[in-house]
Amino acid sequence: MTKKIVVLPGDGIGPEIVAEAVKILEKFREEGLNINLEYGLIGGAAYDETGTPLPAETLEMSKQADAILLGAVGGYKWESLDISVRPEKGLLGIRSELNLFANLRPAILYPQLADASTLKPEVVAGLDLMIVRELTGGIYFGQPRGIRTLDNGEKQGFNTLVYRESEINRIGKVAFDIAAKRQGRVCSVDKANVLESTELWRETMTTLSKSYPDIELSHMYVDNAAMQLVRAPKQFDVMVTTNMFGDILSDCASMLTGSIGMLPSASLDENSKGMYEPIHGSAPDIAGQNIANPLATILSAAMMLRYTLDEASMADRIEKAVSKVLDDGLRTADIYSAGMTKVSTSEMGDAVLAAL
Ligand code: NAD
């Protein structure tokens, strides 16, 4: 059956980088991959045309799709708009409407780029870890929440950290399944010594692990995990954690690699339908100049092939092609260093295509 892919280029560098990933998907289609690409508007581009950052038409086509490839949203032009119609609202809207509860954020440092990290090359060279973050529960969504005035007139802000067993189980399963395709190790990150909701998280992960005898489960408190990520990040294979801890740890992990233009991400629902996007934003400072790094978006397309389209060998080919162009010394401006060959966005995309 034909798989439907919705392409949402968005704003800033979004259209430039998405075009390079689409070139690769089109090549696979020519080789027989049964996909159909359909384009939609999101973010500032959608606001300009329709008055809303997430038009009903985009949402509807995304609901019907098997996967979504997104560029990025936002930019100076829309910064003064009311928050309800800002480009970022479109992104948050689509994530929650599609119930994308599992956020996969790999942090991979290609050995060729070890100098780009702020850490010593021997600490990070060859880093390949996957953070699985729960995305639709926890303290960002828990009720009650708000700011109230106490009897003494003082204001008090409050939020609620809640997790149900079913929510923990479903994110745990995603992490265990991914670990089964990697090195077979899951580190569950919590604060079970202080927070009851994460005490339940730890208990539930431990029970779940009994169904995965080949996976090694360990537990770590979040403060230690933050420390270990910068001390010895290569000890981790898959980390699974709550929404807020994952928000913080995944940004920390991505910076270990020093190159924001290299990192893809996926957000999945219970049926492995997913939205795939680079972790970076719309980079309005370099938009329209054909100098942005398209590799994060190209690697997001590889994740789409692996996790939604079940085409692991095509995903492998993309990842190997990226490694090959880096071996050949090709670099966009953001990862350029002396002695390498500086290339544009489209030249980088063409080089990956040729290396396939
Ligand atoms: P950003 O990630 O867009 O840019 C940060 C820096 O990294 C900039 O100097 C930029 O030029 C550079 N950069 C980012 N991606 C690059 C790439 N592929 N190649 C080369 N350089 C790259 O973050 P920001 O500047 O804080 O935000 C800009 C806009 O993007 C804002 O409107 C923000 O709200 C939005 N944003 C969107 C997303 C998203 O769509 N997922 C994520 C983060 C920020």
TrEMBL record:
GO terms for cellular component: cytosol. Pathway: Amino-acid biosynthesis; L-leucine biosynthesis; L-leucine from 3-methyl-2-oxobutanoate: step 3/4. The keyword Transmembrane helix does not apply. InterPro entries: IsoCit/isopropylmalate_DH_CS, IsoPropMal-DH-like_dom, Isopropylmalate_DH. Its cofactor is Mg(2+); Mn(2+). SMART domains: Iso_dh (SM01329). It is found in: Cytoplasm. Binds 1 Mg(2+) or Mn(2+) ion per subunit. One of its GO terms (molecular function) is NAD binding. NAD(+) binds at residues 75-88, 281-293. PROSITE patterns: IDH_IMDH (PS00470). Its EC number is 1.1.1.85. The keyword Thylakoid does not apply. Mg(2+) binds at D223, D247, D251. Catalyzes the oxidation of 3-carboxy-2-hydroxy-4-methylpentanoate (3-isopropylmalate) to 3-carboxy-4-methyl-2-oxopentanoate. The product decarboxylates to 4-methyl-2 oxopentanoate. This is 3-isopropylmalate dehydrogenase. The lineage of its organism: Bacteria, Pseudomonadati, Pseudomonadota, Gammaproteobacteria, Thiotrichales. The gene is leuB.
